[in-house]
Amino acid sequence: MFDWLIVGAGFAGATLAERIATVRGERVLIIDKRDHVAGNAFDEQDAAGILMHRYGPHIFHTNSDAVFAHLSRFTKWRAYEHRVLARLADGKMVPMPINRTTVNRLNDLSLVTEDEVEAFFNARAEHVAEIRSSEDVVVSRVGRELYETFFRGYTRKQWGLDPSELDKSVTSRVPTRANTDDRYFTDTHQFMPLDGYTAMFKRMLDHPNITVMTGTEFGAIKGKVPYRRMVWTGPVDEFFDHRHGKLPYRSLTFKHETLDREWAQPCGTVNYPGEEVPFTRISEYKHLTGQVNAKTTITTEFPAAEGDPYYPVPRPENAELYKRYEAMADATPDVWFVGRLATYRYYNMDQVVAQALATFRRIETSVPLRSANDATGLVATGA
């Protein structure tokens, strides 16, 4: 008998499982169809002993003191500031996001102040009456040439759509700087879990009130395991059997390679914005983890239309379709929908944790605790 069934052992599910078990003292069954916990953040040592990420690099960063403090209960940290270079078709490597160094290297300039760089951008920026698309965001800030160099091809590969067809939120995530700050993120807290993400998740779920079942589909236990309430972190349209049609997601495939040399590239990630290659980026894990090893492991990412859902596709018609599922979710009693896939939002890891913690606060105020002798209200998973 379980008080809660949680479907999905990623950040959303694991955060809620731990809070429910620890604070409320309730019994939780958490399942995942994959053979491991930690969701897309899952990491493991490969044959060379290098800690690598099976689903591509995950770099933790947040401005939330509360999220950082919460996760610090389950891990020590290694300070790490992520840096990215863009490799252009001519082989030139320049910092990404665009900053003063990028502008100087591309144009053989020697701009020295932020005002000079802003003047450079302003001279090339195109007036856009209303910024709606991802293309509008970039050309209105830095002009057509930098847009073509860094954003158009990369976005077309990543999303299978032209930036003019995507919501402005996509390229708005990538800043443009007039200084020489070459960090990809500027958040207050920038760290990697010292022992890896998987170790952090295992500590999070190591509680006598939590039962973990990996390699378990929801359908395999539906109607067989009794529970009172559910947290769903999978695709919201899947929960409702795609009643209104499938919500579009982008997927990824990964090529993992261990190379017989100490280093492969000068920083954690190198982006390939041009359409002359089919992949978007290559990441090298030793930069992230600080490991010392005579060999190195890299991952090349290939965007895909089919496969595991990774990214909700931000277009107006998709947002409208999601609203239909959201209305169904809101009307479903005793089921809480949490996470990137369940709420069809392009969240970072820290945002998922924040959403899960906020959901727990709502549970605390709206869901009464069951007394130890109360065996009523249990349902056989499928109601």
Can you describe what's shown?
32% of the residues lie in helices and 21% in strands. It has 383 residues and is α/β, with parallel strands linked by helices. Among the domains are: 2-37 and 205-247 and 313-380, Rossmann fold (3-Layer(aba) Sandwich); 99-172, no CATH class. The strands form 4 sheets. The chain has a 7-stranded mixed β-sheet. Helix 5 runs antiparallel to helix 6. The chain is globular. 38% of the residues are buried. The model has no long low-confidence stretch (mean pLDDT 96).
The coarse overall form would be globular
CATH architectural designation of one domain: 3-Layer(aba) Sandwich
The name of the CATH superfamily of one domain reads NAD(P)-binding Rossmann-like Domain
Strand composition percent? 15-25%
Helix content: 25-40%
Tell me the span between the first and last alpha carbons: 15 Å
* pLDDT averaged residue by residue: 96
Counting DSSP E segments of at least 2 residues, the number of strands comes to 18
Quickly give the structural class. Answer: alpha/beta
Assembly type of the chains comes to: single chain
Layout of helices and strands:
Elements: E1 2-7, H1 11-23, E2 28-32, E3 43-45, E4 51-53, E5 60-62, H2 65-71, E6 77-79, E7 84-87, E8 93-96, H3 100-107, H4 114-124, H5 134-142, H6 144-159, H7 169-172, E9 189-193, H8 197-204, E10 210-214, H9 218-221, E11 226-232, H10 236-239, E12 249-259, E13 269-271, E14 281-284, H11 285-289, E15 296-304, E16 311-312, H12 316-330, E17 335-337, H13 349-366, E18 379-380
Parallel strand pairs: 1-2, 1-11, 2-10, 7-13, 11-17
Antiparallel strand pairs: 3-4, 5-9, 6-9, 7-8, 11-18, 12-15, 12-16, 13-14, 14-15
Helix pairs in contact: 1-13, 5-6
